[in-house]
Amino acid sequence: MNHEFKQDASTRRGFRRAASWLGCLIACALCGCDRSSPPEVAAFRPPASRAVDEVPEPKLAADTTPSPAPKQPADPRPTTKPAATAPVAQAPPPEPTPEPEAPREPTIIGTWRVTDISRNGESMPLGGMEMTFIFAEDGTLTQSASGGPMPEAQTNSGTYTLNDNSLTLEMQGQSQSGTVTFEGTNGMIFEMDQGRMTLTRA
Question: What are the structural domains, with CATH classification, of the chain?
């Protein structure tokens, strides 16, 4: 009985396969399919497995973030503020330079001291006596002598006249004329007859 049941089951599976192929043929005829056999289906083949060490490592994108600049070491020197300076006072404007004075012409006006007296070319010592002449602008003359052989100081008054370099002295009713030669502004020589007197401005 089991044998019959197995035979009937295999028969039924054969009929189902035949019906399936028959349905495919009818569908191809109606659709115009000229293929008389069912399509070949490619057998499934699993992909060959790769070794673990062959798996390419993922490439990391280049890091474009700029690296921070290195910090500068702190200056150990203490920072000091510049001391406040007082405003510089402006210098006063320079004073105008005075114009040089014109050289003064030698003049007989003033006080003169006798430094030497000579006669006929021979110097006469004064013996410690001091003699001065004072010539005033109004033409008056004052002569004084003291010391040396003079026991007392003596003063005489008179007048003078000067024309160019010609000098005339009038004193105590006596007149004496001669020529005057100036040596700079502080020296004068009065020459008369046979005598010569050298004077220096006092």
Answer: 110-201 (2.40.128.280)
